[in-house]
Design brief:
Elements (H helix, E strand, L loop, with lengths): L1 H18 L40 H6 L8 H12 L1 H7 L5 H12 L20 E4 L2 E4 L8 H8 L3 H10 L1 H10 L7 H13 L9 E5 L13 E4 L2 H4 L3 H8 L2 H18 L10
Antiparallel strand pairs: 1-2, 2-3, 3-4
Helix pairs in contact: 3-4, 5-8, 5-9, 9-12
Length: 278
């Protein structure tokens, strides 16, 4: 849309200049001959590459063992994740096909209002949002957090240091996927840290949180009639998809996830030598 506006403005400018009355030219001034020194042309330096705030060193293992091409990396990811998490957990909670691209797209989207659940690298939690009537309205039930108990046990069982070490080893694949997503010249780990900081800024709200049920066209519906739950507070509904997820999973679960994210952030931002994807 921005491009169309620019083109329309350019086209409108051309129409105005081509249809305005032609001004009467003034009489020519007498010619004056004078010597003009040739202007020196200053060579401007090329623009500097964007600075990397949080560089990642994949370590010698990425070079020693070699990483597969991005589009042929699913089996490599599955073996690596099986070793880190266990085969049963991988099959229960993760979507392996296109894992690198799923992971990168989801990290980026968590800081925006685009949920794109079909791109998540984790499988969706079963069931629907559990609500209770309260004061003539609807609130998220205190029992809704129980739906996430299996996933929270899975998260608690992940060795954070081993997970970050694996992330560093596989980083060239994530970087390539990030560039393919539409961010050439950008550094994925900087975006990871930015999104973590954004998620950590999710407000700690008193429960229960009020919600409302709406149809696809935004019209309010009765509970039990199907539809989509939105936060009743428009300022909460305007928050990013990642922050809204943290608000929905329950205050206790949010505190645990924030603690995990804080630990991950500390490990990701340790000083190291920057390396670009091949």
């Amino acid at each position: 849309m921005i491009a169309l506006v620019v083109l329309a403005a350019a086209g409108g400018g051309y129409w105005w200049w081509s249809t305005r009355p032609t001004p009467v030219a003034p009489p020519p001034a007498p010619a004056v001959t004078r010597q003009v020194a040739p202007a020196s042309v200053e060579q401007l330096p090329p623009p500097a590459a964007p600075a990397i705030q949080h560089p990642v060193d994949p370590g010698p293992s990425s070079t020693r063992f070699g990483l597969p091409p991005l589009d042929e990396s699913d089996d490599y990811f599955k073996k690596a994740l099986d070793q880190l998490l266990g085969h049963k957990s991988v099959m229960s909670f993760l979507a392996i096909d296109g894992f690198a691209r799923r992971f990168v797209a989801t990290v980026n989207n968590l800081g925006t209002d685009n949920t794109a659940a079909e791109l998540w690298p984790v499988k969706r939690t079963a069931g629907r949002l559990v609500t209770d009537p309260r004061g003539g309205g609807t609130v998220i039930s205190g029992t809704n957090a129980d739906r996430y108990a299996p996933f929270m046990r899975f998260v608690d069982g992940v060795n954070t240091e081993h997970a970050v070490a694996l992330y560093r080893r596989l980083y060239p694949l994530f970087q390539r996927a990030y560039e393919d997503l539409g961010f050439p010249g950008k550094y994925f780990n900087d975006r990871v840290v930015e999104v973590i900081d954004h998620l950590l800024a999710t407000p700690d709200l008193a429960e229960p949180i009020k919600v409302k049920l709406v149809a696809a066209d935004g019209v309010s519906k009765q509970i039990g009639a199907g539809g989509l739950y939105l936060f009743e507070d428009s300022t909460l509904e305007a928050r990013s998809s990642g922050q809204k997820i943290l608000l929905r999973v329950g205050r206790a679960n949010t505190a645990k996830l924030k603690a995990k994210l804080t630990n991950i952030r500390g490990l990701l931002t340790k000083g190291s030598v920057a390396r670009r994807s091949p």
